[in-house]
Design a protein that fits this description.
Blueprint: E1 23-29, H1 36-46, H2 67-72, E2 79-86, E3 91-98, H3 106-115, E4 118-124, H4 131-143, E5 147-152, H5 161-172, E6 176-178, E7 180-183, E8 186-189, E9 195-199, E10 202-206, H6 213-230, H7 235-241, H8 248-261, E11 265-269, H9 278-288, E12 300-301, E13 320-329, E14 333-342, E15 344-345, E16 350-355, H10 358-361, E17 374-379, E18 383-387, E19 390-393, E20 397-398, E21 402-406, E22 416-419, E23 425-426, E24 436-442, H11 448-461, E25 466-469, E26 476-480, H12 483-497, E27 501-504, E28 511-514, E29 518-526, E30 533-543, E31 550-554, H13 566-579, E32 590-598, H14 606-622, E33 626-640, H15 644-653, E34 657-664, E35 668-676, H16 683-691, E36 696-706, H17 709-715
The structure holds guanosine-5'-diphosphate (GDP) and magnesium ion (MG).
Magnesium ion binds near residues 64 and 100.
Length: about 725
């Protein structure tokens, strides 16, 4: 990987600051391909961290450094790049958190939102806004996260800035207003009414071309009104409407306050290719976006679940930090990306690691993700400020900042780090449930242990990966967010752990039961030469109601089956039930009555009666119909109202039984149905394409039900 290093990277030391007030944590959000990763390159160049930008195409960007990212030419994980910017009011450190736009990697986006205090919504001038991005905007709305919109790719052949702007306003609301108008090789500032021209990587200021006068006036009017509406000074609107020219400084102050409050969202046009707009964007980030001091901390508890109040973004406060991402580097080992909420982390310190306390956070059960509960001390290895994969040593890391910690062996993604003497635990952030099951096996049998170990490590790093070892189907099932996610997991298994993995057809854990009562005669007799075997038994089998399991009744009279061999018959029947009698699925919900049998004084044995028991069950099964039972899930789908019909008819087509619908919020509906598991193994993919990513669903096991004969017969 070293040979692919971005050789154009500047040698600049990591920007360090001594106050949270000088930090901005900014997450980049937007559709896949909208230009986020390239924008980070452009901003790094604008701030002098890089001499020249890398490209996604060549795999030379700072943020897309992972093997999978270079191969796929798109981001699959979040990454961090920090840069210093001095906009004239002192040096500010900007931590840019690049996230993948593709839906499979939404777990990385969630982690990015958690680590950040403000968000840039990056929209391509040639495309627009997709459904998932709208949803993230609404989520940001709910928590009042400050946001700005960047319209990228101004130079694109199909770029249409005006269109992209209207799309963004339609999607995000009327508080989304442009601060600049793209013009020629630069931008016109609508407040300053100056033309910022970019030539040869430098910005110069001039008067705008008079031909823009009309456009400027119109947009400027809308912008000023928008700002004044947000102003806390109520007299301002009257003065403005009365014809007073409002001082630009007053407007800028009001604008910045409204942006920081999360009630006004400036739009900045950018061309990453030429650098146009990068300095303007850095100015919005440094002066409009709030520092971590203004961000309310997530809920804090002690590991025993007692709420802890009063923690703030104080560098001298108790240590409170969180692992937002974990990666493994073949050379460096484990690297944990950490957001510090309170206190200061120093190298060589010992910290307390706590995490995944299912008992009092309920729902997000770490256990099902293959995570362990943590409550232990661990020493910090190296401390650094990452620039993509490059680690720049950090002397210390203060509250509000982001950093990488090397060689933590216990801490996993989502864990809280705190003082050894004052253990704390943060309420976990909302992680998405993986809903696509992929069954896998090691290509070589000898690799099975390596596969298990590799999967465990990957699941510890990635909270959106769940590993299931199914005891009924004996399959290893990876629960993933989608196929692109599973590809990344399989790639990592082969590249990092050297295990070649085959995906195999997923077996849904079906079960068998008797369709009706039947009798079975089991005769296991071998008396020719050597030690003889002799056992005969007669059984009656009846189906029991669902969920009854297995009942064994002994009705033998007169010692036809000797006492000591009755448990042998039962054992043989149980063993046969585990293997099944039809398609090889375990048999459940039957009562077996042992009626009669025969024994031989010398040749009968425990083993012989076990064999006879199994045989008797097979015979009984052959005499009647074996019915298949299938697991049925309760599926809840959250959809925009206009898709309710489409989703319901799709569910019906999957043999789903509709239970009802509930209105959720203004324009969403929750559709509930019971659907057989075999019909929804790929539902996450199908629902995404049916709804263009606007719907989500959950599923939970409800019960086993008889499978229709027409479908069961195909399995045998
Ligand atoms: N013409 C042009 N192409 C761009 C610009 N920014 C990004 N791209 C291209 O758009 C594609 C997607 O960019 P990328 O940064 O990976 O988008 P992301 O998925 O949002 O990170 C890449 O091929 C980039 O080279 C830009 O400003 N102008
Ligand atoms: Mg990207």
């Amino acid at each position: 990987m070293a040979d692919k290093a971005n050789t154009s990277q500047g040698t600049g030391a990591a920007p360090a600051v001594d106050s949270p007030a000088a930090i901005r944590n900014v997450v980049l959000v937007g559709p896949s391909g909208s230009g986020k990763t390239t924008l980070v390159e452009a901003l790094l160049v604008a701030s002098g961290v890089l001499n020249r930008p890398g490209t996604v195409l060549d795999g030379t960007t700072v943020c897309d450094f992972d093997d999978a990212e270079i191969r796929q030419q798109r981001s699959v994980g979040l990454s961090l790049a920090s840069l210093p910017h001095d906009g004239g009011q002192g040096k500010v450190k900007i931590n840019l958190i690049d996230t993948p736009g593709y839906a499979d990697f939404v777990g990385e986006l969630r982690a990015g939102l958690r680590a950040a205090d403000c968000a840039l919504f990056v929209i391509s001038a040639s495309e627009g806004v997709d459904e998932p991005t709208r949803t993230v905007w609404q989520e940001c709305d709910q928590v009042g996260m400050p946001r700005a919109v960047v319209i990228t790719k101004l130079d694109h052949a199909r770029a249409n800035h005006q269109n992209a702007l209207s799309t963004a306003q339609a999607a995000f609301g009327d508080k989304v207003l442009p601060l600049y108008l793209p013009a020629g090789d630069g931008l016109i500032g609508l407040l300053s009414q100056s033309y910022f021209e970019y030539a040869g990587g430098k910005r110069s200021v001039a008067a705008p071309d008079p031909s823009y006068a009309g456009q400027i006036e119109e947009l400027r009017g809308t912008l000023i009104e928008g700002i004044i509406e947000e102003s806390e000074d109520e007299s301002l609107m009257d003065r403005y409407l009365g014809g007073e020219e409002i001082d630009q400084k007053v407007l800028i102050d009001d604008l910045e306050r409204a942006v920081a409050r999360g009630s006004f969202f400036p739009v900045i046009p950018v061309c990453s290719a030429s650098g146009v707009g990068t300095l303007e964007l850095l100015e919005v980030i440094t002066s409009g976006f709030p520092s971590p001091l203004e961000h309310k901390l997530p809920d804090v508890f002690t590991p025993h679940g007692v709420a802890r109040q009063g923690l703030t973004c104080d560098t001298a406060g108790p240590l409170l930090a969180e692992v937002v991402k974990t990666t493994s580097d073949p050379y460096v080992g484990r690297v944990s990306l950490v957001r510090v909420f309170s206190g200061t982390i120093r190298p060589d310190a010992t910290v307390h690691v706590s995490g995944h306390f299912t008992s009092f956070f309920g729902d997000h059960d770490g256990a099902s993700h293959g995570h362990e509960d943590h409550d232990e001390d661990e020493r910090i290895g190296s401390l650094s400020f990452p620039l993509g994969k490059t680690q720049r040593p950090a002397g210390q890391v203060i509250a509000g900042d982001l950093c990488a910690i090397g060689r933590l062996t216990r801490a996993e993604t989502g864990d809280t780090l705190s003082d050894k003497a004052d253990p704390l635990l943060l309420r976990p952030w909302n992680m998405p449930e993986p809903l696509l099951p992929i069954a896998v096996q090691a290509h070589a049998k000898t690799d099975e242990d390596k596969l298990g170990a590799g999967l465990q490590r990957l699941a510890a790093e990635d909270p959106t990966l769940r590993i299931e070892q199914n005891p009924e189907t004996h399959q290893i099932v990876l629960w993933c967010m989608g196929e692109a996610h599973s590809d990344v997991v399989l790639d990592a298994l082969s590249n990092r752990y050297g295990v070649t993995v085959d995906t195999v057809e997923l077996r849904v854990p079906l079960r068998e039961t008797f369709g009706g009562p039947a009798k079975g005669h089991g005769r296991h007799v071998k008396q020719s030469g050597g030690h003889g075997q002799y056992a005969v038994c007669d059984i009656e089998v009846e189906p029991l109601p669902g969920g009854s399991g297995f009942e064994f009744v002994d009705k033998v009279v007169g010692g036809a089956v000797p006492r000591q061999f009755i448990p042998s018959v039962e054992k043989g029947i149980r063993a046969q039930m585990e293997k099944g009698v039809g398609a090889g699925y375990p048999m459940v919900d039957i009562r077996v009555t042992l009626r009669d049998g025969k024994a031989h004084s010398v040749d009968s044995s425990d083993m012989a009666f076990q064999m006879a028991g199994g045989l008797a069950l097979r015979e009984a099964a052959a005499a009647t119909k074996v019915a298949m039972l299938e697991p049925v899930d309760l599926v809840s789908v959250l959809v925009p109202d206009d898709l309710v019909g489409a989703v319901m008819s799709d569910l019906s087509g999957r043999r789903g039984r509709l239970l009802g619908t509930d209105k959720v919020g203004e324009n969403r509906t929750l559709v509930k149905a019971e659907v057989p598991q075999v019909e929804i193994t790929r539902y996450s993919i199908d629902l995404r394409s049916l709804s263009h990513g606007s719907a989500s669903f959950t599923r939970e096991f409800a019960r086993y039900e008889p499978m229709p004969e027409s479908i069961a017969s195909k399995l045998k």
